[in-house]
Amino acid sequence: MKQLTLKALFLSGVAAFSMNVHAASVYDQCVADAKLLIEAGIQGGNTAARQVQQATTVQQCREELTRMEVKYEDQWRFEKDGKQYVRAAYSVMTPEDRLKWATLFNAIDTKNFMGVRYLMAVYYRQ
User: Fold this and answer.
1) How do the domains of the chain map onto residue ranges?
2) Can you give the pLDDT of all 126 residues of the chain as single tens digits?
3) pTM, full prediction
4) Strand ranges (DSSP E) for the chain?
5) What is the rounded CA–CA span in Å between residue 81 and residue 52?
6) Residues 6+ apart with CB under 8 A from 99
């Protein structure tokens, strides 16, 4: 009975959380999906995490990541002496944007059921 109560509590929390996510931006939804997958992975392992319904697709999150990079495109893609040069986009971002970019990048890994945080959560489940 205790097990059933914990599952019901977890599911009701997920439902309430997902209702709040609908009003958020794509970035916020991607990060929230990742947190939800990690929580489900800790509770029930990889199988439980794969059954979680996500608010956004991986493609939507990647498009948001691209939007963040395009903001700095003139700084990381440039021409010098007739040659084209390209830097890593995050190398020219402000610290605040770099943090958001890295968080979204990790969220995409989690949504793909990969990445250190997700794999540690489902493996150690603590």
Assistant:
1) 2-124
2) 455 555 544 555 555 555 454 558 999 999 999 999 999 999 999 999 999 999 999 999 999 999 999 988 888 888 888 888 888 888 899 999 999 999 999 999 999 999 999 999 999 886
3) 0.75
4) 77-80, 83-86
5) 52
6) none
